[in-house]
Amino acid sequence: RLLIIDFGSQVTQLIARRLRELNVYCEIHPYQNVTDDFLAEFAPRAMIFSGGPASVFAEGAPMPPQSAFKMGVPILGICYGQQVMMHCLGGKVQRGHGTAEFGRAFVTPTDARHPLLDGWFGEGREQVWMSHGDHVSDIAPGFSVYGTSPNAPFAITADPARQFYAVQFHPEVHHTPKGAKLYENFVRLAGFKGDWTMGAYREEAIAKIRAQVGDSHVICGLSGGVDSSVAAILIHEAIGDQLTCVFVDHGLLRLNEAEEVVTMFRDNYNIRLIHAEESELFLGALEGVSDPEVKRKTIGRLFIDVFQKYASQIEGAEFLAQGTLYPDVIESVSFSGGPSVTIKSHHNVGGLPEKMGLKLVEPLRELFKDEVRALGRELGLPQSFIGRHPFPGPGLAIRCPGEITREKLEILRRADAVYIDQIRKHGLYDEIWQAFVAILPVKTVGVMGDGRTYDFACALRAVTSVDGMTADYYPFSHDFLGETATRIINEVQGINRVTYDITSKPPGTIEWE
Ligand code: XMP
């Protein structure tokens, strides 16, 4: 396996992605955790040093342990990773007075040739993406130069004897068009066969779960979303009835959702499942609450209480399973304690393990969303589950601005079902990241069948996104919107006006609260 040492670059995740696309298994670990002992235990076949925001001149600058260079394995250093390699191996780095490069640059080949660059330099120069202040001014003994750019004379360097490679630019980003080729060459030179598949991952993950859990019992909060579903099925495959799932029904789910989830897990997978029907508790506590943050915090707190109540009935539970994905891990590493403001208190089961004295099982920690979907397919999860749009933990509560009432929830559920049905019928579901209805806290006047109506207005929302961090509204045709509005008003009593939300994120957010 390949080890990526993360020095804090914003794009380290993309390195992992490029490698998985090459069917190479890799893990990213923050530099602070990579000690001599760690390296000895991990025994990487190759390493990549990521970029990062630091300068090697800074006090306490992030460094790999010296033993990394003595393991006899290939190393590829990127940007800060290159500078660190040169710094550690006897080269020189210079502060970037006037030679910083950000953005597009062109690298031209030197006379020397190296297999790392097979397939490169077709037309004599190649576009790359740079983002550096400092730069290497003297390469370390043993290294040669294979490519230069105006502000980075040592844009591509290598010590072929030791199989150390170091580049100043970022081959993992889209704006380095031949970057993937460079990774491909690197892993080939490092001897990887490219035989890592989801099937292999499944087997490895199952073995790891068995080793971690032993004879103990695991509990898993199931939301019906893709991540927790895949985690639960994988763990069930590993330990069978040592797993119990808890599905908390807070009364804020979509139409028929609870039945669908519970049936799927009980009937198809024979997984032990507690259906915690607690809607009275949640809806009672939310009565009269209209502030979005108070809603979120109330739901988060009750969720923990309820989960704890059911979990304490399961004897011998020592582990809590979570469907944490790789981007969640990285975000919490790079941003914990950071200066970002709270836009919304996202509800999850954070805080549970400490409170309950449980250890964590997180079998998806190394995967990206699309890889989790691939694993789900591998595990036989139906496509209808795998392709589901994300649904937030606080559920319909945050799609019901203002006070939440049972009446509004019922109307919202039915309107949402019609809207999603329309989207499916038009074959648009998979093109959309997420679509839902929000019921507005206003009633408006209408006329239906010669009579006056005074009913709720609603807003349709549909966005495209790759990660939920930024989003754009989906450009439905006017025909589609018109037809959907007519259907909702005709089929859902209580709504007489339909609007379409055309706000992107930012400045909007995807959910309304
Ligand atoms: P926003 O509204 O912040 O949403 O643009 C981004 C994505 O996150 C989902 N979301 C949540 N998911 N718990 C979750 O598990 C939450 O509290 C929560 N709030 C928002 C939202 O549906 C969208 O996919």
Automatic annotation (TrEMBL):
EC numbers for this chain: 6.3.5.2
PROSITE patterns to which the protein is assigned, alphabetical: GATASE_TYPE_1, GMPS_ATP_PPASE
Top-rank taxon, per record: Bacteria
Pathway: Purine metabolism; GMP biosynthesis; GMP from XMP (L-Gln route): step 1/1
Record GO cellular component, one term: cytosol
Pfam families found in the cross-reference section: GATase, GMP_synt_C, NAD_synthase
SUPFAM superfamilies: Adenine nucleotide alpha hydrolases-like (SSF52402), Class I glutamine amidotransferase-like (SSF52317), GMP synthetase C-terminal dimerisation domain (SSF54810)
Residue positions binding ATP: S223, G224, G225, V226, D227, S228, S229
Domain annotation GMPS ATP-PPase: ranges: 196-388
Coiled-coil residue spans: none
Reactions it catalyzes: XMP + L-glutamine + ATP + H2O = GMP + L-glutamate + AMP + diphosphate + 2 H(+)
Residue spans crossing the bilayer: none
Active site: C79, H170, E172
Entries under InterPro entries matching the protein: Class_I_gatase-like, GATASE, GMP_synth_C, GMP_synth_GATase, GMP_synthase, GMPS_ATP_PPase_dom, NAD/GMP_synthase, Rossmann-like_a/b/a_fold
GO MF term set: ATP binding; GMP synthase activity
HAMAP family listed in its UniProt record: GMP_synthase
Quaternary context: Homodimer.
Function: Catalyzes the synthesis of GMP from XMP.
Protein name in UniProt: GMP synthase [glutamine-hydrolyzing]
